[in-house]
Specification:
Elements: H1 2-27, H2 31-38, H3 42-51, E1 61-66, E2 72-78, E3 83-88, H4 102-109, E4 123-131, E5 134-144, E6 149-154, E7 159-165, E8 177-178, E9 184-188, H5 205-208, E10 211-219, E11 224-225, E12 231-235, E13 239-245, E14 253-259, H6 275-278, E15 284-291, H7 292-300, E16 305-307, E17 310-313, H8 315-320, E18 324-330, E19 333-338, E20 344-349, E21 354-359, H9 360-368, E22 374-375, E23 381-382, H10 385-388, E24 389-394, E25 399-404, E26 410-415, E27 420-425, E28 430-436, E29 441-447, E30 456-463, E31 479-485, E32 492-499, E33 507-511, E34 525-526, E35 531-532, E36 543-547, E37 550-558, E38 561-563, E39 566-570, E40 574-581, E41 590-594, E42 599-603, E43 608-614, E44 619-624, E45 637-643, H11 662-687, H12 695-723, H13 727-757
Parallel strand pairs: 12-17, 37-40, 39-45
Antiparallel strand pairs: 1-2, 1-33, 2-3, 4-5, 5-6, 6-7, 8-9, 9-10, 10-11, 10-12, 13-14, 14-15, 15-18, 16-17, 19-20, 20-21, 21-24, 22-23, 25-26, 26-27, 27-28, 29-30, 30-31, 31-32, 34-35, 36-37, 37-38, 40-43, 41-42, 41-44, 44-45
Helix pairs in contact: 1-11, 1-13, 11-13, 12-13
The structure holds sulfanyl-(tricuprio-$l^{4}-sulfanyl)copper (K7E) and dinuclear copper ion.
């Protein structure tokens, strides 16, 4: 024990020594030696230096990448490409307890479709909330293509707060994209289907199948989508694809492209040429141009029709009121990307070699003059392609997505078939540079590239195939995100990052300093509803109560114990455990898992989470904390005892462990007195410095003070027992007193280290 305390005190000194030793060994190698030994070129070393973030350092940007079929989000830093977090969105994520505690289960349950739990999500496009067209770092939205759903993630704690289900679509690809002040989040359907849930034969495709684009109303005050204030515009049964909102001069408009405007229906099994052949007969498909501001007004004026609880502006009304227009675009387009000033729309046809730049000024003039080239089969006015174009540029074979640089007129387009990125000037219409990519690039991402003020600097190519880029790990390969330096005239490839979590279609990156996530929750917080939990519990107020047939356990978690330590119920009881993490220290998450029950909680400081289950089997079920939270983490344990139905609770004595004597008591007290000296010296160090200037240290000090109060409490108990000569209890409480001291010392040392590393200054003492 004494040794342990000393070790705690020495902690920082020991680390210091070993670092000195290893840097000496490191120092024997010159950079040249290392380059030679590892076969690195000057270019490699330069790339390494550009991406390396020294230990303890921070990245300049954070990227939020779709986790594809995993239904999750991946958060990583740029330029280091270090993965920081996965965020559970449409699927359970055990580490975060997402989908295991009652609070987050309620979020996932919002994503049920017709009462059915959907166990995966096909996430494609994340979008960060915007204020005046700039990323504001408050919220993030992401879509599920397979089951048309949209999720809201709050960037205050990087947690999923809401899932909404689109009630009329059967698939959805053109989301999520936000309007310039995040009034709406757009979601466009992909594969045409009837709005109803009924069977409709394919022979009725043209009449009964439809596309749609939904504008989900976002209420920033409460951080939630309001389905009752959202609406949809009905579209022809084309396969609508990606979308984007207008801004600047195109503010109030949105754009959605489409493929298979042939409305071709395959059927290889019955001898018909397949979809892929029939869906690319025409040379052009249609960009849908929608005046969403006007559509919103029409809905507000009662011109919508309710379909499955959703307000829909039917095509007929949309055409009559001048809300919907079509613009031809080169064969099988994919991305539509609006320029930062909102004037230009860049679209590329996957089966073409060109990127087309449309000029919204020209489009708007044609619409205002009602200068149309024709109508589609549903009566939607079609604008003239040539009259709307600014320019077309040959960028390569299979162009997909375009991203904007901070440099004027500069864009990057992913070229799928040629496996390259083309940098080009969309004002002058000329190619500036190309870079070979490994392999088959999908989306590209520049820093804050979808905003009105792209930040340039880096480009990430989100590649579909990794093939031979990494150590082989079986037939299923990771995806590859390639980091490219775009600060100079030539693009430079810097780094390959394997992404082992579904196909990450798209990602968005934001300047890291715009994000201000919280360090801990205010105590007793339900993070999923963003309010105080009705089950919050203060230390000392833990209890087990039976109410309406449910045994509620109101517990707390703090280093290093779970209160209560024993939960006894009767077989068949419904048990609802509620745990509040009462820690104030940063990063002191506790887990809580019970054997055989699927109960698995992650309880971050301040959070209250619950798990409700039926104790259907009699037996003994240990529970414990799943996060290595302190030296006595393994002792953070307890038992759930489930008595067979009808059996009386046992009143027998429990095992007390070792039998203690007065000598044991005195020995423990001596250890505690020495430990206290250690604590006092750490406290002395901290209080002699301007620790109040460091918020994290202030929390640690508060936390340590709590622990010291607990220690004082245990000390008092041990002394009372000693007076009564009950050496058993006196020694056990003296040991508990020591446990609290150890925690105090642990926190104290963390505070001391923080002060040392952040240049705290000595303050004048008044005595
Ligand atoms: Cu091109 Cu869904 Cu945006 Cu995949 S999508 S790449
Ligand atoms: Cu708490 Cu381990």
């Amino acid at each position: 024990m004494q040794h342990f305390t000393k070790h705690l005190l020495m902690g920082s000194a020991v680390v210091g020594l070993s670092m000195a030793a290893s840097s000496a060994a490191f120092g024997d190698d010159t950079l040249q030696d290392v380059m030679k030994a590892r076969g690195l070129t000057d270019k490699d070393v330069l790339a390494a230096a550009k991406t390396y973030v020294p230990t303890g350092g921070r990245d300049e940007f954070l990227a939020f990448s779709s986790g594809g079929q995993s239904g999750q989000l991946i958060v990583y830093g740029i330029p280091s490409m270090r993965i920081l977090k996965y965020i559970g969105v449409f699927t359970p994520e055990p580490w975060q307890g997402y989908g295991f505690d009652d609070e987050s289960k309620a979020v996932l349950a919002q994503g049920r479709i017709d009462g059915k739990d959907i166990k995966f999500g096909d996430t494609h496009h994340p979008a960060i909330s915007e204020t005046n067209g700039e990323y504001d770092g408050q919220y993030l939205f992401i879509n599920d293509k397979n089951n048309p759903r949209l999720a809201v993630v709050d960037l205050k704690d990087f947690e999923t707060k809401q899932i909404v289900v689109n009630p009329i679509m059967k698939s959805e690809h053109g989301g999520a994209f936000v309007s310039t002040n995040t009034e709406y989040v757009i979601e466009a359907s992909q594969y045409p289907a009837p709005f109803s849930k009924k069977y409709v034969p394919l022979s009725k495709f043209n009449q009964k199948y439809r596309g749609a684009v939904t504008y989900w109303k976002f209420n920033r005050e409460i951080g939630r989508i309001e389905p009752q204030n959202s609406f949809t515009v009905e579209l022809p049964p084309y396969s609508q694809d990606l979308s984007d909102f207008g801004k600047g001069i195109s503010e109030g408009w949105s754009f959605t492209n489409s493929f298979c405007t042939e409305r071709y229906i395959g059927g290889i099994e019955s001898g018909r040429p397949p979809f892929e052949a029939g869906c690319s007969q025409k040379d052009t498909d249609f960009l849908h141009i929608i005046n969403w501001k006007k559509a919103a007004e029409l809905i507000a004026a009662g011109k919508g029709k309710e379909v499955n609880g959703m307000q829909v502006l039917m095509m007929k009304t949309a055409i009559k009121e001048g809300v919907l227009f079509m613009l031809p675009e080169a064969k099988s387009p994919h991305g539509i990307d609006v320029s930062p000033d909102g004037r230009y729309l860049i679209v590329s046809g996957k089966l073409d070699t060109h990127a087309s730049v449309y000029d919204f000024k020209k489009i708007k003039a044609l619409i205002d003059k009602k200068d149309f080239a024709g109508k589609d089969p549903y009566g939607v006015p079609i604008l003239d392609l040539k009259k709307s174009l600014h320019t077309q540029v040959e960028v390569g074979l299979g162009p997909l997505h375009t991203q904007y640089d901070s440099k004027p007129c500069t864009v990057y387009t992913s070229i799928y078939v040629d496996s390259m990125v083309t940098k080009w000037d969309y004002c002058k219409g000329k190619v500036l540079d190309t870079l070979h990519i490994h392999y088959n690039v999908g989306h590209l991402m520049t820093m804050e590239g979808d905003s009105v003020k792209p930040k340039g600097k880096y480009l990430v190519a989100l590649n579909k195939l990794a093939i031979d880029r990494f150590n082989p790990v079986g037939p299923l390969h990771p995806q590859n995100h390639q980091l490219i330096d775009i600060s100079g005239d030539k693009m430079e490839l810097l780094y390959d990052m394997p992404v082992p979590l579904g196909e990450p279609h798209y990602a968005v990156a934001i300047a890291a300093d715009k994000l201000k996530p919280k360090i801990r929750y205010s105590t007793g917080w339900n993070s999923r509803t963003d309010e105080k939990s009705e089950y919050r519990t203060r230390p000392g107020r833990e209890k087990i109560v039976k109410k309406d047939g449910v045994t509620h356990v109101y517990g707390t978690l703090i280093r290093s114990h779970i209160t209560p330590e024993i939960i006894e119920v009767e077989q068949g009881d419904t048990v609802s455990v509620h745990f509040t993490n009462v820690e104030r220290a940063q990063d002191e998450t506790h887990g809580f898992a019970i054997n055989g029950t699927n109960v698995n909680l992650s309880v971050e400081p301040g959070k209250t989470v619950s798990a409700t289950f039926v104790a259907d089997k009699a037996g003994v079920f240990p529970y414990y904390c799943t996060e290595f939270c302190s030296a006595l983490h393994l002792e953070m344990q307890g038992y759930l005892l489930v008595r067979p139905k009808g059996m009386k609770a046992s009143s027998g004595k429990t095992s007390q462990g070792t039998v203690y004597t007065e000598a044991d008591y005195s020995k423990q007290v001596a250890t505690n007195v020495q430990t206290q000296e250690v604590i006092d010296s750490v406290v002395g160090y901290i209080t002699a410095r301007n620790f109040k200037d460091f918020a994290p240290v202030v929390s640690l000090v508060e936390d340590a003070t709590d622990q010291l109060n607990f220690a004082a409490d245990a000390k008092k108990k041990s002394e009372d027992y000693a007076v009564a000569k009950d050496w058993q209890n006196a020694t056990l409480w003296a040991q508990q007193w020591f446990q609290y001291q150890v925690k105090t010392a642990d926190i104290g040392l963390r505070a001391k280290t923080y002060l040392e590393e952040h240049g705290a200054k000595l303050v004048e003492t008044k005595d």
